[in-house]
């Protein structure tokens, strides 16, 4: 399976960041998959943000839960991340990742006015 992130590279503070992960090579409803969003701020380590499983169940990092929403569009074989009320601390490379170890190339998101 291949996964590819897409979305705006620049978001203003207080706005909502929206990213899409397009999956190819298999169905997002296949029951052996968990789909994850992970980010890496500059100079820092990887941070798991949340996951959505094959049946649509979602799980979020406690530190981001109040601002994060993950959903899916099975007709497009995509899943999405929304992060509300962004600040410059949300500047990072955002990755979509499978539980089987497939990673997208990542997309840089900068939060700046």
Tags for this model:
113 residues; mainly beta; 6-stranded mixed beta sheet; 4-stranded antiparallel beta sheet; 10 strands; 0% helix
Number of strands: 10
Give, in order, the helices and strands.
EEEEEEEEEE
- The CA-CA distance between the termini, in Å, is 36 Å
Q: Number of DSSP helices?
A: 0
Range of strand content: over 45%
Quote the average pLDDT.
Answer: 97
Could you say which overall geometry the principal axes of the C-alpha atoms support?
Answer: globular
- Residue ranges: pLDDT <50 for 5 or more in a row? none
Strands of the widest sheet, in order across it, are 2-10-9-4-5-6
The SS-based structural class is mainly beta
Major β-sheet profile: 6 strands, mixed
Instruction: Name the helicity range.
Output: under 10%
Our Rg estimate from Cα atoms comes to 13 Å
Topology:
Elements: E1 2-6, E2 10-11, E3 17-24, E4 34-40, E5 47-53, E6 58-60, E7 68-73, E8 78-83, E9 92-98, E10 107-111
Parallel strand pairs: 2-10
Antiparallel strand pairs: 1-3, 3-8, 4-5, 4-9, 5-6, 7-8, 9-10
Verbal overview:
0% of the residues lie in helices and 50% in strands. It has a six-stranded mixed β-sheet with strand order 2-10-9-4-5-6, with no helix packed on it. A four-stranded antiparallel β-sheet has the order 1-3-8-7, with no helix packed on it. The chain has strands at residues 2-6, 10-11, 17-24, 34-40, 47-53, 58-60, 68-73, 78-83, 92-98, 107-111. With 113 residues, it is mainly β.
């Amino acid at each position: 399976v291949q996964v590819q992130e897409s979305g705006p590279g620049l978001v203003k503070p207080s706005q909502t960041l929206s990213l899409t992960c397009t999956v190819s090579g298999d169905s997002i409803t296949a029951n052996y998959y968990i789909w994850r969003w992970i980010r890496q701020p500059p100079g820092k380590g990887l941070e798991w943000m949340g996951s959505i499983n094959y049946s649509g169940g979602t799980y979020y990092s406690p530190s981001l839960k109040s601002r994060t929403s993950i959903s899916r569009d099975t007709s497009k074989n995509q899943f999405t991340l929304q992060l509300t009320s962004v600040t410059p601390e949300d500047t990072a490379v955002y990755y979509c990742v499978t539980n089987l170890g497939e990673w997208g190339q990542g997309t840089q998101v900068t939060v700046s006015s």
